[in-house]
Amino acid sequence: xxxxxxxxxxxxxxxxxxxxxxxxxxxxxxxxxxxxxxxxxxxxxxxxxxxxxxxxxxxxxxxxxxxxxxxxxxxxxxxxxxxxxxxxxxxxxxxxxxxxxxxxxxxxxxxxxxxxxxxxxxxxxxxxxxxxxxxxxxxxxxxxxxxxxxxxxxxxxxxxxxxxxxxxxxxxxxxxxxxxxxxxxxxxxxxxxxxxxxxxxxxxxxxxxxxxxxxxxxxxxxxxxxxxxxxxxxxxxxxxxxxxxxxxxxx
Length: 251
Hints:
This protein is mainly alpha-helical. It contains 13 helices and no strands.
């Protein structure tokens, strides 16, 4: 098939990889290529690395790789890294148990920034209510993540205990804004320390978050879908080599 020549494949990947309107074209192309789809997927993976273009994004992918590397959980390494990224960016994998923890960290981060920027007190209190109601979900998520056994260095029993203790220390609405903010900082610190993160690592700009979610993560998820469209659940050696490079920092 002439339209599956290397020149077409290269142009398709370079120009349309993250254009959602071309998703079905990628899936159909992969399906038509069948066992020969490796070249397409390799090009897609290489192109996706171009979006990891800031030191913060590089550091975040390095962290996700390091904290999940060679862990015992029966989940493939790419999904381990994706779940880890959800701790820092809750939009990465909303269906994972990590979502509630990532969401709580994000709202706490917004609250702390709002206080530093002297936002209206009522707005800050409203945000605090939004995440304190999710602490129960975060505790449950912590227990479920412990079962997955995909994180290095994280003591989930200790984390769950710390979150339960904090749950009973949530300031009442009549407490000062400073007390609310102090509690927020303690909650964020508890979660970040447990996962070996720092405030700087999760402090991504809007552009960095957009690039991570709408380009890098989208492209990597499309690679997996294209692979399934072409060869199903089989995992030849060339696929394992591609998968090993996915969601990792540039070398």
